[in-house]
Amino acid sequence: MLHLNDNPRSSDNGTNNTNGNGGGEPEAPIWKVLIFDSFCRDVVSTVLRVNDLRDNGVTVHMQLEAQRSPIPDVPAIYFVQPKRESIARMSEDIARDLYELYYVNYASSLPRALLEEFAVQTTASGKAHQIAQVYDQYLNFLCPEENMFSLHLPSTFESIHNPSMTDVAMSSLIDKIVSSLFSVLLTLKTVPTICAPRGNAAEMVATRLDAKLREHILGSRHNLFTEDAEDILSQSRRPMLILLDRDFDLGSMFMHSWTYQALLHDIYDIRLNQITVDKTDDAGRKSTKSYDLNVNDSFWARNADQPFPEVAVSIDDASNAFKREADEITRMGGVSSLDEMGNIDVGASTKQLQRAITTLPELTARKANIDMHMNIATSMLDAIKNRQLDDLFQIEEQLTRQTKTSILEAINDPEKKNPHDKLRLFILYLLANETMRQGDIDECEAALAAAGCDLAPLHYLHKLKRVNKMNASVSSPGIGPASATANTSGAMGSNDLLGKFSSISNRLAGFTEGSSLGSIFSNVRNLLPTRKQLPITRVVESVMAGKSAGGSGLGIGGIRAGIGAATGSSGSSGNGSSGNAVAKMIDSFVYFDPKQARRGNLAGSNASMPHHPSVAGGDGAAQEAIVFVIGGGNYVEYQNLMEFAQQSSPRKHIVYGSTTIVNADGFLNELSRLNAA
Fold first, then answer.
1. Is 145 buried (19+), middle (13-18) or exposed (0-12) by CB count in 10 A?
2. Residue 522 gets which letter from DSSP?
């Protein structure tokens, strides 16, 4: 798109509706301007920065809604959503003759009616000949990570559960989700088999997406999924698209994480791969600093999913390695620091000078990168200290062993200064203990209110549980085989762990800017608890195995045993019903195959588990999956799924997506608004 769609490979994500004079032979870089609306700006800014745009010949980028002056003799790339307002604004720009040529790119498919309206408006101005191209790019989604996408539809959980939501509005929302998922699949050049639990939004999306894919594959003259396909083998491997509703596991939205990326999202809310950190200098002046979490940042790529103490040690190691290399370069140049490299000793040998000069840009970039992560980590340490996040994480790791007394102690602890943290802890405890007595719930709620917590999210969860009769203990983050192993193989129990794992936040009291991050965490990283599989990972594992819940996959007995091991008990009525809930959900999945010709009422029936064309080997297990959650997702689930994929043998490929990526505070705000609805 940024190369005026001249590169044949760029058509992978789009289809040409009208091709004017923009399809010539590749030429020297053409300087151009980029005009986008707010949504498409976010799509671009997630994967490209200003320097990247300049490298692709874009000198100026502007908002479609902004007042813009004419720039004659320069082509303009428009990247907008197919809306009537966007068409009217582009037609106005064309009539005013702002640019030389117009390359129009729509984020999703442009309906025929709007295309005709665009043609009428531009023809009336007499400038239609200046429109070089009109393309459907199918890029109406965000891609913050290599294996992660977001539809950028905020507050979807709130919208779906809002009692004032009309059928027309719900249908429109489902259509938006289907359109974006179609774009994701088209970008991946794959037509998956689709599965979803019955009865909620996921089934509605699955049904409509199946119909849309079927109509395109079987009824369209141009199949975009096979157009320009280069890898025939990859086309034959079909992943599973697993659609899930957020309701099936609310607990993961409230968990406190201990990995670098998830912790950053919890504290600073990663938006468009950028965070904003509040800073206070020695004089007490407050300021804000924004940092880009670049996908090309090798340190970020290596450490995003690592426990924060290990990241701190890695920052320290990277800083020390940089200092050693910088000292060597400055010694060769005869100066005392990199800032003085302009005053290098002309008497040094030519080879030494050449090495020093060629190494300087790389060292400068590394220094900026290390400084960024050092500043972020320092700010995170302050947040951990103020909010006692380490203590909360430890409690949640052993949540099923906690008692009402220990939860009340955490709620009443004045050192835990964030009311949302206390509310999240109690919600997790309540979800893991559905048989909790009403008197105990009232006592904890009174303590939360005294601690300054807004109880509206909790009240809405009570309503949701009553209305849907949801089995909340499914959402317990303590469920998983990893936790069972940790508690049955001689590992530290709950009391032992909490006793020997000295509180990190107590050790932060003596931290100063000149202290070594590595020294603070040097004795902590080996004590971090074992990672566990979240409910979404266990469901995905079972579905990809191609076995029903009653088989040797994620069966009722298997789940009950796993919960019993995790809690150190033989199972209770609550735990047993938890296993039943997950098992019934998997057994109730509906399945669709868009490539299969519809025969009566069979397409999408749940008569039997389908054969997965993506199977590699003969064990009946799918090796590729796209997991999509309707109602919000987070980095905790993403990292848990990536860990499962990497540890599988053979290694699986999983892509995680959601209607939006939201942190715990954002999700609590949605619940608060729902309670007031």
1. buried
2. T
